[in-house]
Amino acid sequence: xxxxxxxxxxxxxxxxxxxxxxxxxxxxxxxxxxxxxxxxxxxxxxxxxxxxxxxxxxxxxxxxxxxxxxxxxxxxxxxxxxxxxxxxxxxxxxxxxxxxxxxxxxxxxxxxxxxxxxxxxxxxxxxxxxxxxxxxxxxxxxxxxxxxxxxxxxxxxxxxxxxxxxxxxxxxxxxxxxxxxxxxxxxxxxxxxxxxxxxxxxxxxxxxxxxxxxxxxxxxxxxxxxxxxxxxxxxxxxxxxxxxxxxxxxxxxxxxxxxxxxxxxxxxxxxxxxxxxxxxxxxxxxxxxxxxxxxxxxxxxxxxxxxxxxxxxxxxxxxxxxxxxxxxxxxxxxxxxxxxxxxxxxxxxxxxxxxxxxxxxxxxxxxxxxxxxxxxxxxxxxxxxxxxxxxxxxxxxxxxxxxxxxxxxxxxxxxxxxxxxxxxxxxxxxxxxxxxxxxxxxxxxxxxxxxxxxxxxxxxxxxxxxxxxxx
Length: 471
Hints:
The protein has helices at residues 29-39, 44-47, 49-54, 56-77, 163-173, 188-199, 211-221, 236-248, 262-269, 310-326, 348-361, 376-380, 382-387, 406-420, 444-470; strands at 6-8, 20-26, 85-93, 102-113, 118-126, 132-141, 148-150, 179-183, 204-209, 229-232, 254-257, 283-289, 297-300, 333-337, 369-374, 400-402, 423-429, 435-436. By secondary structure, the protein is an alpha/beta fold. Strands 10-9-8-11-18-17-12-13-16-14-15 form an eleven-stranded mixed β-sheet, with helices on both faces. Helix 6 (188-199) packs across helix 7, helix 8 (236-248) packs parallel to helix 9 and helix 10 packs across helix 15 (444-470). The termini are far apart.
């Protein structure tokens, strides 16, 4: 019986007509993304599921190429194995391969040609239903020397495909875009961010600020704003106040930052007279799409609350749970982060974590499953949690990471962004409406995802209110 830990070839003399070998693999979205990365082929028929569904021919070719790679893997690792030289191959793609399909590639020796040690093999790929998806024939030159050595594991590759953001945006596009007051969009970049979201069907912007500056920004960005409502305000302070007033009056369901400073906008939001405060503490959350991590991560608070108290942390957790619900996580797992996973009286973050978990036990925080204190590794890695002997429904599987303070959250978010290639879509929670904060450094995908999150929060709040009225 073959040793699975070893790789061993078959020389020309050892190969017999009728010999077979096979490998199986399930097609994932990461496989398609990796194919695009290696080949440079970004044909939407390969990468865009919606497009591929309407273009079956290209879909067969795209995913068939992946199946053809499986045949190459059998020839190179099993039969003949290491030392074989590929001379030629003819393949026919007879049925599409879809994401989630398990394909088995089988090669069978049909002819040997001693003169040049050539071996002819029939090749076939079948899916999990036993249906043929690829047929063909390969011609290889078999090795003469025996090779047997430890099998090298398939290398781990991180693909920054950010498919989760795409699906998030598609969900938001499925409903009517909410009216959005955009405060002081007076630079090309700020105006562009709002209009791109409008063109994507995520928001309906109302432009609030100095009319001349907004029109100059539109000209610089090469955008036509004639179809958008413009509310005049003389300067940035007035624009923030006017945008907030528009929301308070019911004229807009979202608030979006333009080119003014964040603290200028938030001052209008938290104003005791005419602001957007609620009983909840206002907090910020990043929804992070981290390459290589199986689920999105909500990190809170990394932008507003510098040293939150226990009471404020409770609201930060509640806001994070609301966000998780809005994006489709029914019972989010909430990890209260600290440097250690045990309660230490000398570390306030561990005491707060324990208190928050007890508050959840008593029903004071609802809608999610809390655990803490947890160190970062124990929150996101099941292997790390097992190593520490932590038994918890949250450890290793957290959806929400609640940081001890703003410094810790800011550093964590930026480390994931700059070292792991993560995207961070941000939104402010706890006010009367969600607030979209985008940065000039954000790429288009992140800006659209931030708007999509806010739109989904508006929809969730509307559905909750409708349910309350019906009751």
